[in-house]
Amino acid sequence: MYVLILHGVMGRAGIYWQQTLHDQLVRKGYPVIMPTLPDADHPDRSEWLRTVQELVRNIDPGQLVIVGHSLGVVAALDFLEKSASPVQALISVSGFSDNYGDEINDFYMKVKSVDFTRVRNHVRSCSVIYGGDDPYVPQPSLRKLAEDLQVTPVVIPRGGHFDSESGTGLVSLLLDRIAGLNSESAETGPDKINL
Fold first, then answer.
1. Are 32 and 174 in contact (CB under 8 A)?
2. Domain 2-194 classified CATH 3.40.50.1820?
3. What is the CA radius of gyration of the chain?
4. Selection from 59, 52, 51 nearest residue 1 by Cα
5. Measured between alpha carbons, how far is 156 from 39 in angstroms, rounded to an integer?
6. Among positive and negative, which fits the CA dihedral 193, 55, 3, 187?
């Protein structure tokens, strides 16, 4: 199973908790792709999609887990809309799917809305994790993503936007979720798995 880690706006490969997650996954034997997406301060939505498509073009989608943070989740959703077959899992950290009025993300989100019927048909398992005190993304926008993906979110009371090195226990949670995919997919086959 491959793991693709996508940062958000103004991010880069390995920012915050993502380097720790990368290193621990590699230690456990997972191949990990952790790019710095183009022009992260002013991202172009179609360019981020093309970049993600190119990064995983030789990977069996059924063997791909995408961990996205913040705007990186939207890039993952765009990829899932276009995917020819379902990926193993999407794990959203502080992700959203609506244009909630933040000027940093506004130009990116105005391009188009997400077709969640297509997204749900192109992912076997979804997990939504966010902080109950996120200072950047409003709670209704964080909840809306979970509703759109039809999953129950994991809300960490003092997680904030998970934009610190520690991640407030996030890395352990993500490692458990990813490890659980191996055993659950073997037990349930290609059906939906709710984390």
1. no
2. yes
3. 15
4. 59
5. 30
6. positive
- Provide the token pair at 178: 């990813």
Dump the DSSP string for 48-83.
HHHHHHHHTTTS-GGGEEEEEETHHHHHHHHHHHH-
SS3 labels along 153-190: CEEECCCCCCCCCCHHHHHHHHHHHHHHHHHHHHHHCC
| DSSP tally for the chain: helices H, then strands E | 7, 7
129-147 pLDDT, tens per residue?
Answer: 999 999 999 999 999 999 9
Kindly report, residue by residue over 64-109, the tens digit of the pLDDT: 999 999 999 999 999 999 999 999 999 999 999 888 877 766 666 6
Instruction: State which amino acid sits at residue 37.
Output: L
Checking if the pLDDT of 112 tops 60, the result is yes
